[in-house]
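User: Please predict structures.

Assistant: First:
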Amino acid sequence: MVFFSTLDRLRELPLDKLKRATLVKVKFEDIKIWSELVAPQGVIAIFSRPDPSRLNFAVRGHSVPLSLICDNIRDPGNLGTMLRCAAAAGCHSVLLTKGCVDAWEPKVLRAAMGAHFRLPIYPSLVWEDMEKHLPKPVTIHVADSSCAADRSRGKEDSQVNVSHKSSKAGDYGWVSTRPNQNNVRYEEYDSDWDSDCEDGGLSLPRVDSKLYHESWAQSPTALVIGGETHGLSVEAVQLAEKTAGHRLFIPVAPDVDSLNSAMAASILLFEGRKQLLKLIQTPERKWKSKAEQQFS
């Protein structure tokens, strides 16, 4: 159902879609009352939340075998911007873990600028089901911060444990201020550290690091972006290790603290798109994997 204040607003909408909707003309004052915006545009709609498995998306000739995994993104503006970037970069799908803000929250919808209807979005996924929504084989990379690496420099422990009670890798962020050496172990401090280690803690995997512009998207790829407050989940890092993925770094100028998660996602997604398109367009490459066929 679409409520509008003037016919001019309707003319801005697709006619084929309007034919299937109920149109109701109302006063602009009513729309101002209903809308959360200070200055609404004079049109507002009510609709059922669509099931992504039932949505028919237009043939997307510009899509690439690249998926975005949002790990505990809680800011509506960030998530909406990330969805918009994913659609613009031609991503095949977006997967949201439990803990992410509702993808259909009004602020997310406004920031996404229609991205919800341009690619599949799968919300509230647990990590055990994540791979079911990705092609096989797929390589999973994580956007990571160097803050933990800085603290871990000089440590030569062969095994580092993490509390079972922790569901996040607090030492993992979403973007780096500078690259670090490969194969650095990370540890997450917990107040019950000693007792947890005695019970047999969970060891974080070894995941090599790469600069964002180095070669990392050479096959069907998924990129994990963690929330700015809680960082990446341990499960995300484990999937990166399992699929031979990397920790991706975006170097920034000195004395700059960080980028936000949406900016990091934008840089990495378009870099991944560039690398995949270059690979696909290579004349010598005449084969196409089954996983890539799923994305075409």
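Second:
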Amino acid sequence: MQNQKELTMKIIKPSAIALVALTMSACSSTGSSQSGIPEWVLAPQVENGIASTECVESSNNFTVDRNMATSLARASLVQQINLKVQVMDKTYIERVDASGDSVTGGAFSSVSRQIANLSIQGAEMTKSDIVKIGEVPNVCVQVALNPERTQMLLDEIVAKSGRELEMDDQKVLYQEFKAYKAQQELEQALKGSAE
């Protein structure tokens, strides 16, 4: 009798653990927050790239709504790029000042607006869906620049700025360029947990 009980426990215990693990992974893979809004809407991201998501209230014309949300997301992407370039400027100036040289004006921001506006032509819609926000259906669209386009964008900004950069400096600026989004998401998460 004791052996049968031990055998039953040996079978049930791993099965229970597997069931709990499966349930937890299923819950976490939904990608939704506690509000029911998908993570890709709340915190758009693409690995080593730049992403933006915008939503518009549904007018029951999905094509028109999707096009409007896409336009808004692309405009948001341009703003994001311009902010990232301002951070790059600051990093570059700090690095140059630390080395004892001097620099005047924004090294990259003067050329970024034109390049950013052109770069959104390479932004692709990566996700779209109807998402209920406060019980109101919205059409949400995520657009993104993939890692290659992001690197090309940075290379073009640096080239058109006329600045000569060492390879190490360019790597630092690229990391700073990508990291700005992560910093924003962290600040947003901290604000959310404080409320």
